Amino acid sequence: MSEKDTGSVSEVLIKYFGGDERLAKIVDEEVPYPDGKLIVSRTDPKGIITHVNQAFVDMSAYTREELVGANHNILRHPDMPAVAFKGLWDTVENGEKWQGYVKNLRKDGKYYWVKATVIPNIRQGKLVGYTSVRRKPSRSKIRESEALYETLQ
Amino acid sequence: MPFNFTVSPDFAPDHMSGWFYFNTWLQRNLGTDIHLELFDSFDAQRDAIKAGQVDLIYANPYDASMLVRELGFKAVARPAGKKDEAVIVVPANSQAEAVEDLEAGVRLATTDDPDVHTIGMIMLEPADLDASNISQKDYDTYILVAKALLRGEADVGFFLKQGFDELSDLIKKQMRVLVSSQISVVHHALLVGPQMQDCMAELKALVTQMHKDEKGIGVLESMGIKEFESMSTEQTEFMIDLIDTLTI
């Protein structure tokens, strides 16, 4: 748990790229990333989740059934600036790997930080989706990312 | 000309004879000549692969990417329930209680086993440690990694989880596991090269059924494998994609 957490609860309207929006409960409480685990998911080319591993289910607090078929932006925390995700999509749509630090939103409103890597899945020369693998970030990288993302909001 | 078969050099020494039994069993059942060549190091094996001297390989997952995507190998089977996981270990009297307690300058004992090393380095990242701020020494075996820790020559060691578990209790109790990976989807695979792919369907049928055959069971036991299960192209591609994300 971060020293800065207040435990406060609020409701925030999250606006997604493309015009969708949803009212989300936000709890200022970090859930620690589990040691040694990788959170893995795959999406189709439009960002719809097609596969999640158990670590993803456990950390997101959603069920597997709720996750598969949902847009990956279900995890987007309002503290993450839209420009960070634009950089992600511009990179992977260009066929390149993307890596960065991401604050994710859980179903219960709490959050967790990850070091995420996203790669395009190419089969017989065609893009069939994306694989995203998250691992445990260091506290110093989280602090750097928090400071950076505040300036990009 | 016989086909050439090789095994990832990270197999347990106790299972070396098992791979020769497997080769004999395979030749009898496939009705073709296969020469088994074992290598002391991953580099020597990669040189042979790049020189086109390998037709069949029980490959480390890290090498699977190069074999499948660059050299046209195809996955036949994988060992059921046998995952490649890594552990980070410290001497029992170490001050470190968690990875985050390790500091820059830490002395690492590791092997040239590429997937264990890659996973181990990822598990050091929460402590802001990477190749630039640690002191690393490579050893030939996990026994030697353990000795380096026990002699005080290293502060932290990387082991294949199975390799650590197989150490004697006397050695193990002088060490402590700081963190253990739980990745679940990274494993070795039996891959067949372009020259041998005419035999692929027959080979797949044979190895995925060998646990139902009395002689096959004995051979599998000698390799430390319960059974081989079929591995699809997409399962292989998924594992390679995942490993790709770990290597940047």
UniProtKB/TrEMBL annotation, chain A:
Domain PAS: 44-95
Keyword Transmembrane helix recorded: no
Keyword terms, alphabetized: Receptor
Matches recorded under InterPro entries: PAS, PAS-like_dom_sf, PAS_fold_3
Entry annotated with the keyword Magnesium: no
Protein name in UniProt: Aerotaxis receptor
Lineage: Bacteria, Pseudomonadati, Pseudomonadota, Gammaproteobacteria, Oceanospirillales
Automatic annotation (TrEMBL), chain B:
Pfam families per record: Phosphonate-bd
SUPFAM superfamilies, alphabetized: Periplasmic binding protein-like II
Protein name according to UniProt: Phosphonate transport system substrate-binding protein
Organism listed in the record: Marinobacterium lutimaris
